[in-house]
Amino acid sequence: MDIKKHRIHWVNLDEGPASVITVQLDVPVTVTSDIEGIDPRERILVGVKYGIAVLDRKTGKYEYVGRFIEGDNERLRSNDGAADPHGRFWLGSMTDIGLDLQPEGHVHLFSGNPVAKSMRHPVTIPNAFGWSPDKKTMYFTHSTERTVFAWDYGAEDGSLSNERVFYRHEGPGEPDGFRVDTDGNIWHAVYGESRVLKISPDGKLVGQINLPTHNITCTQFVGTELFITTAGMEAGEGSEEAVQLSGAVFKVDVGTRGLEPFAFKLHA
Fold it and tell me: 240-265 as b/e, with b when 16 or more CB fall inside 10 Å?
């Protein structure tokens, strides 16, 4: 995802970097999800400027299926999100790029209605969502608070209770996107610190991956390999190597597998 340039990039892992395909949209595009019962090679869910939309991958056309509670507010755009075990979609909104960053966003929950429900307000940079292997705990990262929160997640109805701080980051960077492995560890990208953290199920830092560029944005498992995305840097913001490699996608075999992501139920 290239939020600033409103682009999505795809690559066939069997064919390598030469197979990259880019789709240009007219709005910021921030996150993707499979849709239950729909071939993801045909259509997928995307987070866009004012909510969630179904994107036709062949034509590049998209259609909104849910909008934010605050309506079409020009100051705001979506950020990271994820489908939950009940097929609903959690998606944060925040100040759009180029505007003065304010605590004006929401954590939204889309559950089949045309307008989302606000689950947390205000937030400044809401980021990743994830669930423990037993689906009894939901995690959410609020980057500007440098905090990963946890809740008890209701297996029957998806309700949340017992909010608590799961992990608080002490470094200069901000925790960004993450994925959970089959053992319940969180592999968390840190924006501005050139590393991915491995956080244990009890919220302890137990390992890290160091990278040669600064702005680490998200992680995703492909088998036992962890794919790691990064954001671009301008000349002078770091070493020549760090700038040259910014915006690249890295991979490293970490010897464990990630949990399979959930699919969005279009008519939940």
Answer: eebbebbeeebeeebeeebbebbbbb
| Spatial contact of 255 and 225, defined as CB atoms under 8 Å apart | no
Instruction: Read off the pLDDT of residues 115-172 as tens digits, 9 standing for 90 and up.
Output: 999 999 999 999 999 999 999 999 999 999 999 999 999 999 999 999 999 999 999 9
| One-letter amino acid of 151 | W
73 is in an annotated binding site: no
Q: Which residues are catalytic?
A: 176
Whether the full predicted model's pTM is greater than 0.90, yes or no, is: yes
Per residue in 3-56, pLDDT tens? 999 999 999 999 998 999 999 999 999 999 999 999 999 999 999 999 999 999
Residue 163 contacts residue 241 (beta carbons within 8 Å): no
Nearest in space to 91 (alpha carbons), one of 77, 104, 102: 77
> Is 80 annotated as a binding-site member?
no
Q: Is 79 one of the annotated binding-site residues?
A: yes
* C-alpha to C-alpha distance for 96 and 202, rounded to whole angstroms: 34
